[in-house]
Amino acid sequence: MLKLKEESLNWSLKHINKYGDSYVFPKLFEFEAINENWDDVKKHLLTIDVYSNGVRPYRTTITPKSSVGFRICTQLDPLDSIVYNALIYEIYEEIENKRIPSAHDVVYSFRLNPESDGILFDPEYNWKKFEDKTRELLESEEYSYVVMTDITDFYPSIYLHNIETHLRECVRLSGKNAHAETLINIIKAMHISQTHKGLPIGPQFSRPIAELILNEIDLILIEMILCLSDMSMIIDFSVNLKMMPTSL
User: Fold this and answer.
1) Are 1 and 48 spatial neighbours (Cβ–Cβ below 8 Å)?
2) Residue 244, pLDDT score
3) Helix (H) or strand (E) holding 43
C-alpha cells in the first residue's frame, strides 16, 4: 500500500499549473475544475492506494518531431498526472543521489531540485550552460578532439528491465520500495503490444526516470576513457579529449 503526502500533492498541482501536465501537449482544461475544487480533489487523492490503483485511460497519438519525422506521445488522465508527479517528488532525492553529483560539473541535464512554487529542475543546469562549458573547454586549447553524439529514439528504446533495475536500486537504502514499484507498474501497464520496452513520451514523470537511466552511460564514459572531460545534456553527449583513445 502507498498513500501520497498532502505536501506532495500540493506541489504536484503547482508544478502542473506552472509547466503543464505534459511537455508535448497543451494543458488539459480539466485542471481548471481541479484548481477550483482542489480541497475536495486532494481529499480524494489522499485516500487512494496508488500502488494498486492502476492507470486511468490516457490518450496516445502521433505528434510531429520535425518537418519529416514524428513520434508517438502520451497524455495522462489529469488525476494520474498529479499522482505520478507527486510520486517523483517523494523520491527525487533518491534519484538525484544515484546520479553523478552536479558539483562535478559534467552533467547539465535536468538536475532535480524542487522548489515550493512547483519548480522541479534546477534552473542552473540547462542547454546554455552546457554550451558555455563546451566553449570554455575548447577555448582552453587543452583538448585536441571533440566527439559528439545523440541517442535516437531514446525513450521508446529503453527496456523495462533497465527501468526496473534503476528505480529499485535508487530507493534500496531509503526503503521507498513502494514508490519504485508503483512507477514500474504504471509503465508496465502502458506497454502496448507487450514490447517490454519504452518510456512514455509526454508525461512529466518520464524525464527524471530517463535521467536516472542515462547516468549509467555517464559513468561508463568517465570510467573507461582516460584524459576525459565528458559532458552530457539530456540525450546529447560531448566528449572533449586531450588525445584520441583507441577505445573510440
Assistant:
1) no
2) 42
3) helix 38-47
Q: How many CA atoms lie within 13 A of 163 on its CB side?
A: 28
Which pTM value belongs to this model?
0.87
Which residues make Cβ contacts (< 8 Å) with residue 216, sequence separation at least 6?
166
Nearest 5 degrees, angle CA 225-CA 223-CA 101? 120
**Per-residue cell: 21:** 501536465
Give CA–CA dist 100/212, Å, rounded: 10
* Residue 7: per-residue pLDDT: 98
Long-range contacts of 183-187 (CB under 8 A, 24+ apart): 183/84, 183/87, 183/88, 183/209, 184/160, 185/51, 185/54, 186/55, 186/80, 186/84, 187/160, 187/163
Among the listed residues 115, 120, 99, 127, the one whose alpha carbon sits nearest the alpha carbon of residue 236: 127
Cα dist. 231→166, 221, 238 in Å? 21, 9, 5
